[in-house]
Design brief:
alpha/beta; Rossmann fold; 2 domains; six-stranded parallel β-sheet; about 45% helix; elongated
Length: about 450
Amino acid sequence: MATIAVAGTGYVGLVSGACLADFGNSVICVDNNAQKIERLVKGEIPIYEPGLEDVVARNVESGRLSFTTNMADAVRKSDVVFIAVGTPPADDGSADLKYVEAVAREVARSMNGYKVIVDKSTVPIGTGQKVKAWVSSELSARGTEAAKMAFDVVSNPEFLREGSAVQDFMHPDRVVIGAESERAKKLMKDVYRALYINETPYIETNIETAEMIKYASNSFLAVKITFINEVANLCEKVGANVQDVAKAMGRDGRIGSKFLHPGPGYGGSCFPKDTQAMARIAQDAKSPLSIVETTIEANENQKKAMIDKIENGLGGSGSLAGKSIAILGLAFKPNTDDMREAPSITIIEGLVSRGATIRTCDPAASEEASWRLEAVKNSVSFFDDEYETIKGADALVLMTEWNQYRNLDLARVKELLKKPVFFDLRNVYKRAEVEAAGYVYFGVGT
């Protein structure tokens, strides 16, 4: 088993580091945020991810997982260094690689022998070659002997779904390894030996192809979500039911049933950022991906369409003035506290701009939502209980399909609402049942 340093203890870095330790490797997670490292040393997990706390605790206790701010020491002790830092979108939509570059250069300044440097972060095609150049530059600056030091760069993209990341890492659909040497491939197989012996599909390719696989995968899923959202909007116009449409489509093995669930638009840390980066990469290569560019625009339109849906459902233009709207769920999906690019932000800000006040709750994301909604904070109230949230509101909006919102006491909800108006933006409930309970019901495409 390998000794591994993981640079970055954010979502990808912490999950990857903990799970790699669970595979039997010795893992040192590094971050320049001393406060975050102090919390991790105390056993506090800075992100909400089911199952992660147990994996971290188990491997810290076994001595396979540790945390530090000392990057140089971690690099010297390790065979493999994973770069798992953020790649936020730049102003032009491309991925900002300043954190990746900083880590690559720091690794080079600390190397004491052959290392495999792994891009785990989602990075544009060509980043692996840039990492090689950054490392070579720093080694040359150290002098003749250091310049001779061997290293390899590998692309090993992550395919983790927030809310099920531990399961995804432990039981992946595939492991992608983009490398240029057999030495690096062999060491990466040692890293993932626990999966290799279980016959997990391995895709070995070059660095550029591995980088492309990640962007192409996420862009395709975003396209699929946006397609069914637009079909849902069309269904509303022509009297069709998108749930039946999606079910029938999903029975086709060429299409599959996953990601055919209409809603208020996609969000999170991956799809918005990766589609923008993919579109920018294609534009720069003079081979534009018009379907991805359209998907980005259509997804923003879907969020805005939900604002219109709520306003129209409450009486049309101007009807939101003075209305109190109860919103259940804030995170972009259930089982996470991630509010990055969450549709709820756009929708809440839009509702407030039209005169509404918001009562809301979320099992995990309220703390992050409170600062992301800073611009409209005077019009938003946060609650811990869904029924307290609903009390006295003019309408209910189901934004995020957390399990506890899937089985609401509809009779009790009706008593608490001023008016029995229910906007189900995730199509969790059946129209007939909700209407039979005395509600005016609005789904998405139903």
